[in-house]
Amino acid sequence: MKAEALENHFLTMQLQTEAGTYIKEFIHGDLGRTKPSLGDLLDCYADILALDVLEVDLKWPPNNN
């Protein structure tokens, strides 16, 4: 995880995750269903303004040898 503070109460983050990771739940906790969330860890309200996939690390086609 990399984070960079922006102006006011905003930041930009880069996360390296595995397939199936629920990014939105990690950030805001999905109405309390996911603990801890980033909002919990920072003791603040957290939400997502934009979500982009920057890279996919996948060898394709798979080597079936």
Secondary-structure class: alpha+beta
- What would the average pLDDT be, to the nearest integer? 89
**Radius of gyration from CA coordinates:** 15 Å
Helix content: 10-25%
General form: elongated
Strand order of the largest sheet: 1-2
SSE pattern: EEHH
* Fraction of residues in β-strands: 5-15%
> What about the largest sheet?
2 strands, antiparallel
Q: Count the strands? A: 2
Q: Flag low-confidence runs.
A: none
Count of individual helical segments:
2
Distance between the termini: 35 Å
Task: Itemize the secondary structure elements and their pairings.
Blueprint: E1 2-5, E2 11-14, H1 23-28, H2 38-42
Antiparallel strand pairs: 1-2
Molecular structure report:
The structure is a single chain. This protein has a domain at 2-42. 17% of the residues lie in helices and 12% in strands. The chain contains 2 helices and 2 strands; from the N terminus they run ββαα. Strands 1-2 form a two-stranded antiparallel ribbon. Strand 1 (2-5) and strand 2 form a beta hairpin. Its EC number is 5.4.99.25.
Question: What's the gist of this structure?
Answer:
The protein has about 60 residues and is of the alpha+beta class. The protein contains two helices and two strands; from the N terminus they run ββαα. The longest helix has 6 residues, at about 25-30.
Keyphrases for this structure?
two-stranded antiparallel ribbon; 2 strands; 65 residues; alpha+beta; 17% helix
